[in-house]
Amino acid sequence: GESVGLHLPTLSVQEGDNSIINCAYSNSASDYFIWYKQESGKGPQFIIDIRSNMDKRQGQRVTVLLNKTVKHLSLQIAATQPGDSAVYFCAEKEGAQKLVFGQGTRLTINP
Amino acid sequence: EAGVAQSPRYKIIEKRQSVAFWCNPISGHATLYWYQQILGQGPKLLIQFQNNGVVDDSQLPKDRFSAERLKGVDSTLKIQPAKLEDSAVYLCASSLVGPDTQYFGPGTRLTVL
Q: Which terminal residue of chain B has fewer beta carbons within 10 Å of its beta carbon, N or C?
């Protein structure tokens, strides 16, 4: 089965609120993680990444947190906007070359 | 900078027929990937090329799927013969080096009837 998964398949938030999307991984040797956003009818789009020597990394309105103790990854989106509606995937680098994707969380923004 | 191009965008075939998908990666990207994405799931790697050599094809159903990347640029993925369970979106991605920061194309949605 997949080594990367998500706690919740769907998440609904109010526009302007902060969103938190969670991801659990099983391979403690993984050293690189990526979050992708996939809008309907499009391919996944890179959002942010983090290496295992970091606990936190910030981008524009997004923050990724990595907790290696419990093998947990989260994506925080600040002040969500309608354009943030999409499916979000975490991916884990397995070995030297391969990315393994989780199932995905659908984020819906309510007006 | 042009992104990853894929064609066709949609394809409907009957089971046991053959189908081929084409991908043109971002210029200069040595690594090319084909993924299968079944509805409601994350992408699953089928095959990875480094230039024109195969790096990983461990999850490619080789009895019916084949892929090539002649000249290390464009790539084609073929299914012959197709089964109902092959209905999915087939995504192509490329990266400069290794799996870091892969850029995805729009995908080809395949429906097998």
A: N
